[in-house]
Amino acid sequence: MGRRKLAISTILREMRRMVYGSKDKRATALAQLKDSEGGDPFRILIGTILSHRTRDENTTKATENLFSKYSTPAQLAKADPAVVRRLIHPAGFYNMKTKNIMIASRQLVSEFGGQVPDNEEDLLKIRSVGRKTANCVLVYAFNKPAIPVDTHVHRISNRLGLVKTKKPEDTESELTKSVPKRYWLELNDLFVRFGQTTCKPIGPRCHSCSLAMDCVYFRTVVAQREKAS
Length: 229
Hints:
This protein is mainly α. It is about 60% helix and about 0% strand. The chain has helices at about 10-20, 30-35, 40-50, 55-65, 75, 80-85, 95-110, 120-125, 130-140, 150-160, 170-180, 185-195, 215-229.
């Protein structure tokens, strides 16, 4: 008989216990930005764009640098690109990201009255905003239920057997069907922290994870590999 499939409430409860009981107490970059900036939608939007393919600590450095000089869409839209590149340098890919955040700021000014829209349809019209970024803005800036699927959410959902998908957009679609909406607001932040501390991309700490025995990845990959050796 196969292992039981854990309820999402059980999975989240165990994740909370492991994450909040961990020695690593650092919040994710977006959670830090939400707390420090009061959930300012513009800063959440720009911070999310800067976070693409970037470690959290570098995103935090870049956003702190940038917002110390440019705090509104109007200011960033008219900024000197060379100065912006220097400020966001820690985030990497700074040439492309400078172009993206400045165009996004101009769009906010010209198309949305300088305000970040609070709905997915309009958010997706903004430069460099895909579904993950749009959902991050909805969750972290507007406290609206959505499931931002980044590499951590995609990887962990598949490892645990919550989904069986190849693409993040498919993971989002499946999770929105199976996860009750009351859990959506916390899911991204919790999965990201769990992915940073326990369920890492390389060298996951399976033997210290209380979900291991009900985890598809552990049973089919890790345990079988250890048995063979």
